Amino acid sequence: MEQRYSNLLDEALGLDQTIEPWPLRGRIVAIEDQVETSGSFVLHHLLKRALSPNSSNVSIFIAFSQPFSHYDRVLRKLGCNLVTQRDNKRFFFFDMLKLQCPGGDGGITPEGGLIALYGKIHETISVLPEISRKNVTIIIDDLSLMEVAANGSSDYVLDFLHYCRTLTSEFGCSLVTLNHEDIYASADRPTFLLQMEYLADILIKAEPLATGLATDVHGQLTVMNKGINYGQDSSRNKISNFHFKVKENIVECFYPGSRG
Amino acid sequence: MAESICRVLRDGALEGEHAPALTIKDSIASPFGFHVFSHVLSQLSSFLFAGKSQSRGLVIVSFSRSPSFYLELLKSKGIEVVSSDKRIQILDCYSDPLGWKDRLIEAGSFTALSHESSVSSTAIVFKNVKYMDKLYNSIIELGRGLVGGGKNRFSVAIDSVDEMLRHASMSSVASLLSNLRSHDQVSSVFWSLHSDLHEDRVTSVLEYLSSMVASLEPLHEPANGQRGDLEKFSLIEHNAKKGKFHARFKRRNGRVRLMSEEVRIEQSGINLTSLSSEGAVNQGLAPKVQFNLQLSEKELIDRANVVLPFEHQGNGKPIQIYDGRRSLVDSKQERPVAVTEKVQTNEDSGRGEIIYFRDSDDEMPDSDEDPDDDLDI
């Protein structure tokens, strides 16, 4: 039943056919959302697909936004048990809510904190068995809160993201990030947001409809799949746009106008 | 046109002159800068390996891609780099630009797994990207290692000046690029940059430092305004695989040459064709509706024939401002008072006419007189 509805999103990401080997290997997915249209559901959906029993994918979740119990509750409704996955060493949860970087007064500096985080991720991947090492998804929720944790220094966050990117080329992991577009929209030059957009192989934007609020449609998703890799299949380079409605246990994705 | 750029880089520097330098700049609306960079890199490498270029070696300073990416790229163009005849070296500023891995190893919390052993002979890892002087020295050292000393020259390709600008001041980056250009063993230099990540003056400085600027722009400008979702999406789709490629060449004699083409991103790289006409492009964007938005031939002629009321017709007659009280032709006839104004074209006379009924006959015609003149103060 779920397959029918989330199919548009899976199709846009290349997840509708087979998920083993993980189609997003070595790719960076950036999700941008706004206050009116939260993009967390895309994050949850990707996590759920990554932890599917048909896949050998391992997920490393770096949470700045919510505690473990929140994600556990959400994923349970989607039919995925995070506690079991954690026990089976398929799901690693890094709780960053307690990370405080007081800014170099003898404690952890923002840079030091992020270096340590990178080290921890690298270590986690290195000790995985060979088969799983090639199939890791790193999820960050979310980048604006990471910037806050780093005392507002977007430079350190960008450095950290660069090192995460080296993980995608070193191990073939995929990186999924969530950021809020409207936080940076008022700046003259939303550099932090743009840097992420340049970095991303797949950019997913969750935006409200131009016509405003509606009961049947919560917003629209635009998926821009770049596929810059030379010598890979050309079907990757495409753009999709469709509407979505977030329900209790599922998100419905449909083309504009196909709903009464 | 991209071929002209590659030829200039291939031919290199003249004795006593600065090396030619190319800036490739793009923006998020048309992010094809790296595709162009890869294209130029592949072309220059082909010239190099065929012995047709002034430079005998190429140093790639990679910030945004791993060394193995470049080796794969060149391999796909038929250039095998891992061989005894080394002509390309990569200064790897990607794998560990800030030395974080070393710091973690010191702290004892890092197991380095070296997957890059196959490329270690072609790539040297650089861990101090905050220091432009060290970077400069490493580039020169690598280049000299490739071509030797004396009059032999090498080219330098920097895949992202953005990363350099993030780590170091603009003046130190500009000075590095300028020093590279003026080094007597450097044949040509090229780099790419995202113009929207920096202030305008930074982009300007880099453009001043270059003898050629290749800029990429979207085919259809995304205007900021109230646009429907479908329109916005259609624009994004149009701009996703195509764009405008502008090249500006600065000659030694001071003349500037500008060329423009349309660039298309394909599987194998970029494809440049001449720009399609603006009209065809714009018509494709007009909304498709059920009524006719265009004017027919007859309508165009009639519109041209309309006599505008206050316009000098150029036939020597004095201008008579029509005040609606009497017609221009027949001054005896009284016009009936009309409640509303009417504007219509009279097609029977074969020329257009504008008929204007004033609201009330009692009103004085407009004039230059001071309306307060009749006050008796």
User: How would you name the CATH homologous superfamily of the largest domain in chain B?
Assistant: P-loop containing nucleotide triphosphate hydrolases
User: What is the fold-level CATH name, i.e. the topology of the largest domain in chain B?
Assistant: Rossmann fold
Taking all Cα atoms into account, the compactness measure Rg of chain B is 33 Å
| Class derived from helix and strand content of chain A | alpha/beta
Radius of gyration of chain A: 18 Å
Number of strands of chain B: 10
Shape of chain A: globular
Largest sheet of chain A: 9 strands, mixed
Give the name of the CATH architecture of chain A. Answer: 3-Layer(aba) Sandwich
Please report the two chains with the greatest interface, counting residues with C-beta closer than 8 angstroms to the partner's C-beta. Answer: A-B, 36 and 47 residues
Residue share in helix of chain A: 25-40%
What form of chain B results from the Cα inertia axes? elongated
Mean of the pLDDT scores of chain B? Answer: 80
The arrangement of helices and strands of chain A along the chain is: HEHEHHEHHEHHEHHEEEE
| Poorly predicted runs of 5 or more residues of chain A | 102-106, 229-235
The amount of beta strand of chain B, in percent, is 15-25%
Protein name (chain A): Elongator complex protein 6
Pfam families (chain A): ELP6 (PF09807)
InterPro entries (chain A): ELP6 (IPR018627), P-loop_NTPase (IPR027417)
Pathway (chain A): tRNA modification; 5-methoxycarbonylmethyl-2-thiouridine-tRNA biosynthesis
Describe this structure in words.
The complex is a heterodimer of chains A (260) and B (377). Chain A has 260 residues and is of the alpha/beta class. Chain A has one domain: Rossmann fold. Chain A has 10 helices and 9 strands. Chain A has helices at residues 2-13, 40-50, 68-77, 82-87, 110-126, 130-133, 143-149, 154-171, 181-184, 191-199; strands spanning 28-33, 58-63, 91-95, 136-141, 174-180, 202-207, 219-225, 238-246, 251-254. A 9-stranded mixed beta sheet of chain A has the order 3-2-4-5-1-6-7-8-9, with helices on both faces. In chain A, helix 5 (110-126) packs parallel to helix 8. The longest helix of chain A is centred in the middle third of the chain and has 18 residues, at 154-171. Chain A is globular, with a radius of gyration of 18 Å. Chain B has 377 residues and is of the alpha/beta class. Chain B has 2 domains: 2-285, Rossmann fold (3-Layer(aba) Sandwich); 295-377, no CATH class. Chain B contains 11 helices and 10 strands. Chain B has helices at 2-11, 33-49, 67-76, 100-107, 132-147, 161-167, 170-182, 200-209, 229-241, 278-283, 297-305, and strands spanning 21-26, 57-62, 88-92, 123-125, 154-158, 186-194, 212-217, 242-250, 256-266, 269-273. Chain B has a 10-stranded mixed beta sheet, sandwiched between helices. In chain B, helix 7 runs parallel beside helix 8 (200-209). The N and C termini of chain B lie far apart (78 Å). The relative contact order of chain B is 0.13. The model of chain B is unreliable at 278-284 and 330-349 (pLDDT under 50). Chain A: Belongs to the ELP6 family. Chain A: This is Elongator complex protein 6. Chain A: Pathway: tRNA modification; 5-methoxycarbonylmethyl-2-thiouridine-tRNA biosynthesis. Chain A: Pfam families: ELP6. Chain A: It comes from Corchorus capsularis.
